[in-house]
Amino acid sequence: MTNEFVLEALTREFPDSVISSSEPYGMLTVEIKKDDIKKVIHYLKDSTLEFNFLTDICGIHYPETQDKEIGVIYHLHNMMANFRIRLKVFMTRENIEVDSIVDLYAGANWMERETYDFYGIKFKGHPDLRPILNMEDLGYHPMLKEYKLEDGTRTDKNDAMFGR
C-alpha cells in the first residue's frame, strides 16, 4: 500500500470531497470537505483499504485563518499493511460541528468528548457529548485560548516585581 494508491482510491471514490493532499514526513494527509468526512472514513474502514484502527481524533485552532479557524484531525491505521493516513476537516467559528464517527469506531467516543471539551467542537450524533476532563461549569474551552492569561483575583502578586 502506498500514498499514491490510497489517494487515487479516495479521489476516484470521492472526487468532490478531496480538497487537497500532502505528505509531510511521508504520511499521507488529506483535507476533506466537512460534510463528507463520515462517508470517507466509512469507506476507508469498510473497503479493501481496511483502515480498521482509529489512532486519534484531535482539534486544532488557527485563529488567524477565518475560513479555516477550527479543524478536526483524524489518524487512521491499516494494521495489516502498517499504513497510516491523516484526514483533516476545517470549519468556521460560526459552524463548529461535524458528524460523529462513534458508530464506526467505538473508541471515538472518548476522543470526540475530549475534543469537544477542549475545543468546543460539537459532534452530531454523539451518544453522550459532555465534558470529560474539565469541570462542566468551566465556561470556556481551554485550547481555544479564550480565557485571560493572568488570574485577576490574585492578591499576592505585585506588578512592580515583574517590571511592569
Automatic annotation (TrEMBL):
Pfam families: Complex1_30kDa. The keyword Membrane applies. InterPro entries: NADH_DH_suC, NADH_quin_OxRdtase_su_C/D-like, NADH_UbQ_OxRdtase_30kDa_su, NADH_UbQ_OxRdtase_CS. Keywords: Cell membrane, Membrane, NAD, Quinone, Translocase, Transport. The keyword Transmembrane does not apply. It catalyses: a quinone + NADH + 5 H(+)(in) = a quinol + NAD(+) + 4 H(+)(out). It is found in: Cell membrane. Its EC number is 7.1.1.-. PROSITE patterns: COMPLEX1_30K. SUPFAM superfamilies: Nqo5-like (SSF143243). Residues 30-151 form the NADH:ubiquinone oxidoreductase 30kDa subunit domain. It is a peripheral membrane protein. One of its GO terms (molecular function) is quinone binding. NDH-1 shuttles electrons from NADH, via FMN and iron-sulfur (Fe-S) centers, to quinones in the respiratory chain. The immediate electron acceptor for the enzyme in this species is believed to be a menaquinone. Couples the redox reaction to proton translocation (for every two electrons transferred, four hydrogen ions are translocated across the cytoplasmic membrane), and thus conserves the redox energy in a proton gradient. Belongs to the complex I 30 kDa subunit family. NDH-1 is composed of 14 different subunits. Subunits NuoB, C, D, E, F, and G constitute the peripheral sector of the complex. NCBIfam families: NuoC_fam (TIGR01961). This is NADH-quinone oxidoreductase subunit C. It comes from Epilithonimonas hominis. The lineage of its organism: Bacteria, Pseudomonadati, Bacteroidota, Flavobacteriia, Flavobacteriales.
